[in-house]
Amino acid sequence: MVINMDTNFSNALRAEVLTQALPYIKRYNGKVVVVKYGGNAMIDEQLKQQVMEDIVLLWLIGVKIVLVHGGGPEINELMARLGKKAEFVDGLRVTDKETVDIVQMVLAGKVNKTLVNMIEKNGGKAMGISGMDGMLIEAKMKDERLGYVGEITGINAAPIIDLLEKNYIPVISTIGCDREGNAYNINGDTAAAYVAGALHAERLIMMTDIAGLLHDKDDPRTLISEISVADARKLQTEGIISGGMIPKVECCIEAIEEGVKNVVIMD
Asked: Domain-by-domain residue ranges, the chain?
């Protein structure tokens, strides 16, 4: 949230806001926080602007922000304009050679550079890179049925660390590659989890368009505000975590097992 310090904003209220914020500023100053941003949260231009303002605000108070983004709706839009139908298997996009070229153009090109530009316009300092730069995201083919959908085999965190040390906000598009030069479409949540793990981030924030983990998927009042890895595994076994939440929770667990302190699923 960005607060406009105008004349209607009393000194008492300013003091209250700063008093509440100070412990968090101290806690996260100089710490790495990875933000996964994508999907439907990128469609609403006003929401996108607010997210970029928040990213810059965190950067200004000394948080080392790493932004990992997807762009599924933009990929679907370009595919439709080119007369190509999107296909999915188990929630993953079937990616033939032509589709992976489209994914690369959209994610590493239009979406990545748009986000970088928005951060810069809001007073931040950003650098856009893809997972192919510096072999940042090394991958192999996940399943022949899916084509060029990648399974991550390694993360080279050095390019990200270099940018953070130079006070940039790294903006990373989720394209991976192998040693033979093949490009792969990488699931954004998975990429964010691996990147956060490689950086031993203080926190991974998974921005999405759902409230979070519900004990009853049809009742938003049953939101589970906090859960351990062990309890998450138990809910998976009981079938409470199901459908599209399974891969998202798996990514959260993967991040924690790789060294991230905690993960937040945020609507």
From this structure: 29-209
CA angle 82-184-94, nearest 5°? 55
The span from the CA of 23 to the CA of 17, in Å, is 11
pLDDT digits (tens, 9 = 90+) for 183-194: 999 999 999 999
Contact between 38 and 69 (Cβ < 8 Å): yes
Starting at the edge strand found earlier in the chain, the sheet holding 126-130 runs 126-130, 169-173, 64-69, 32-37, 203-207, 262-266
pLDDT value of position 76: 87
CB 113 within 8 A of CB 120: no
Cβ burial of 10 (10 Å; 0-12, 13-18, 19+) is exposed
72 is annotated as an active-site residue = yes
In this prediction, residue 10 carries a pLDDT of: 67
Q: Give residue for tokens 């993960």.
A: 263
**Catalytic-role residue among 39, 109, 134, 212:** 39
Beta pairing partners, 41: none
Classify domain 29-209 at the CATH topology level: Carbamate kinase (3.40.1160)
113 given a catalytic annotation: no
Q: What DSSP designation does 242 have? A: -
